[in-house]
Amino acid sequence: MGFTQLKQPDGGVTTVFYPSNQVEARVKKGPFELSWANNASASKGNGRLIVISHGSGGSPWVHTDLARVLVKRGFVVAMPQHWGDNNLDHSNPGPSSWALRPMEVSRAIDAVSAYQPLSQFLSLDAVGIFGGSAGGHTALSLAGGEWSPSRFRDHCKQYIERDFSSCVGSITRLRGNWPDSVKVWLAKRIISWRFSDDDLQSYMDPRIKASAAMVPFAADFVPQSLAKPQIPLGLIIAGKDINQVPSFHVEAILKACQPHCEVIMNLPEAGHGAMLSPLPPFEIGSIESHLLSDPVSFDRSTNIAHLHELIADFFAKYLL
Predict the structure, then answer these.
(1) In what order do the strands lie in the sheet with 76-80?
(2) What percentage of the chain reaches a pLDDT higher than 90?
(3) Which residues contact 86 (CB under 8 A, 6 or more apart)?
(4) Fewer CB atoms near the end CB (10 Å): N or C, the chain?
């Protein structure tokens, strides 16, 4: 697996993995021990590009296992760094980031197109998009979904106690004690103040021809806008996700889009962190651990490897 990074207009970088015949070397990125051939010459794959949109506060490294499976199947994989909502910059999460993300995916495709060592092997008239969590929101947007900040506000006003982390993120959590009522009151006030825009957001890129959304934030979408997705849409469900409760998010989209979409995999015992592989280490007792650690009943070693193959199958079916 080859590796390079391309500069973005906003100062970030788009990380790219691709087929290569050169020897890999071990690399340490944060807590991860990874492996790739750095800035290696590319070899011909299947001619298709997959863009991965990371989750809120995410990095490329938590998607390298999926990238490896896709590269092994011949795909080139590009991961844009979403401005203000990545592991190095947490200044712009939520709806304001979601409005920018689809355009950042388009710019990542443009960057790969302009990088001749890779573009010579690619045909960019049929690109795939995969995303998890906030990245899943990106994937739904690029499948034709329409959403608005005010729909986010309305969801949180009605369901914040049952879907708290979707509305607040990892700043705090409800603990079943007296401060909960203060947290809920304050969160509702801030959300109502910040997210009053009723304008529907939509964005399509004609080069994107297949979309896979895993544990997406989706409660702010107009369900009818995804009743017949503009491109093939696959969904991945984690039944024990407490970060984006399935009934409010991915299952609501599935209900709206059937039979015009498909379930790539349903993981009834998985939590929100199933979208991450390798899974980062979490501090015991932290909010991140609470939201992202695997439930004890989830068999990661078997299920995640199978999931990645099914994602690759989905893109092969619609792009090749």
Answers:
(1) 25-29, 32-38, 2-7, 13-18, 76-80, 49-53, 127-132, 208-214, 233-238, 262-267
(2) 91
(3) 12, 54, 57, 58, 59
(4) C
In three-state form (DSSP H/G/I as H, E/B as E, the rest C), the secondary structure along 219-270 is: CCECHHHHCCCCCCEEEEEECCCCCCCHHHCHHHHHHHHCCCCEEEEEECCC
The answer to whether residues 140 and 214 touch, using CB atoms and an 8 Å cutoff, is: no
Distance CA(215)–CA(205), nearest Å, equals 22
pLDDT of residue 112: 98
Kindly report, residue by residue over 256-295, the tens digit of the pLDDT: 999 999 999 999 999 999 999 999 998 888 889 999 999 9
Mean pLDDT of 158-171: 90
Task: List domains and CATH numbers for the chain.
Answer: 2-147+201-319 (3.40.50.1820), 150-199 (no CATH)
Query: Is residue 284 within a helix (H) or strand (E), and if so which, with residue range?
Result: none
pLDDT at 169: 84
Q: For residues 29 and 13, give the distance between their C-alpha atoms in angstroms, rounded to a whole number.
A: 15
Burial group, residue 159, by CB count within 10 angstroms (0-12, 13-18, 19+):
middle
